[in-house]
Write a structure and sequence with these properties.
Elements lengths: L8 E3 L9 H7 L41 H8 L6 H9 L1 H4 L13 H12 L16 E3 L5 H4 L5 H11 L20 H12 L6 H8 L3 H13 L2
Antiparallel strand pairs: 1-2
Helix pairs in contact: 1-5, 3-5, 7-10, 8-9, 8-10
Length: about 230
């Protein structure tokens, strides 16, 4: 009954596309209320972590900053800030780290994100040597299609499918070692699974699991786990 989805792919802006770090400086005003960058940023006490050296840095690794549990888990899963992952995160932070405490709706315009990334990159050492996605890498839009978010999932079918999920996730909602997936709003659950499905999130097992689930099966699981107390 499981089947693989066909994914629509779009090109990530390449290094050769025109980007403007100066315009990115203006875009950084969206970030400046919570994040600091540049000389002295590492000593400032800001709402969010400083952004010096962000490229090539493992997520959740700034010393002294209190990250959310979700961001710490993303870090443990191997999330590294590259041009590709930062682009996905800036488009909608919760598509990449669903329960991040970063309160930001995201930047819809790809050109504005590219300019902002060019600006941020100026504050990372040796930019040409920073690890990032291959220039020819493809990325998928992690936002689920609107029709997926409105699917009426079959709760009973979701309970049947959940027998595999609870071999790792605790059915009582416990989150020791592995995050809880109970009590989530359906849309959050679907967004998270969709992000794994299109490989925007790094966990290899979850990518595999999400990749063999149909949209209807994901919606069914969301309906079931959303009601589990």
């Amino acid at each position: 009954m499981f089947f693989s989805a066909v994914l629509a792919l779009s090109l990530l802006p390449s290094e050769t596309q025109a980007v403007d770090a100066g315009t990115g400086n203006e875009a950084f005003e969206l970030c400046a209320s919570c994040h600091a960058i540049g000389k002295g940023a590492e000593e400032l006490e800001a709402i969010g972590p400083h952004l010096n050296g962000i490229f090539g840095r493992r997520a959740g690794s700034v010393r002294g900053y209190s990250y959310s549990k979700a961001m710490r888990r993303a870090s443990a899963d191997g999330l590294v800030w590259t041009r590709e992952t930062l682009d996905v995160f800036l488009e909608n932070p919760r598509n990449l780290v669903s329960r991040t405490k970063m309160s930001f709706d995201g930047i819809e315009t790809q050109e504005q994100r590219a300019d902002l990334l060019a600006y941020l990159r100026d504050f990372s050492d040796n930019p040409r040597d920073i690890p990032e996605a291959e220039p020819t890498a493809l990325r998928t839009d992690p936002e689920p299609p609107p029709e997926l978010l409105t699917l009426d999932g079959d709760r009973d079918y979701g309970e049947y499918l959940a027998s595999e999920c609870v071999t790792c996730h605790q059915p009582d909602g416990g989150d020791e070692g592995i995050p809880s997936i109970t009590g989530w709003p359906n849309s959050d659950f679907i967004r998270a699974m969709h992000a794994y499905k299109v490989k925007a999130r790094p966990h290899p097992v979850m990518r595999m699991v999400a990749g063999i689930l149909s949209d209807e099966e994901i919606a069914a699981l969301a309906a079931y786990f959303g009601e589990v107390e």
